[in-house]
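Box 3.1 A note on notation
Throughout this textbook, protein chains are presented in two layers. The first layer is the amino acid sequence; the second is a token string describing backbone geometry. Keep the layers aligned when reading.
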Amino acid sequence: QVEAPGSYQQDPWAMTDEEKLQAVPLIHKEGNELYRQGKVQEAAAKYYDAIACLKNLQMKEQLGSPDWIELDQKITPLLLNYCQCKLQCEEYYEVLDHCSSILNKYEDNVKAYFKRGKAHAAVWNVAEAQADFAKVLALDPSLRPVVSKELRSLEARLREKDAEDKIRFKGIFSQ
């Protein structure tokens, strides 16, 4: 098959360092477009490819050097986009892992706290979810309506779970 000039995208492993740097914004843009179209899995794959390019370049730098930090700061928004996709795919433990790794380096990242809070809530880590949402409010009080909605949703899910548990365990100890 013959492809139009510029339409062929080389695999990251076959790219030079310069080609990787040039490809990342394009791959990021493709991921955003796929996400907007509701193609969440495909978007996640694009973000993952862009992260892989940058991580490959980052491995060649000394940990903590200005170039390493610059690459890390390019990885972070891609990783947050990737986590948003994983949230929608209900892959909560991956979100917890990635957001925690971001927060270990950038402890003021509101988006990482918010996504991690949503993931904690989804896997019934109530105290952790509440702590993350509290941190979101401390860092950005303007997000109170969004955080309040998440906390109300968590409370409703907890009430629902408690009601189900009461029915499920009713009479279990009365025999």
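The helical segments are 17-36, 40-58, 66-88, 92-105, 110-122, 126-139, 144-169. The radius of gyration is 20 Å.
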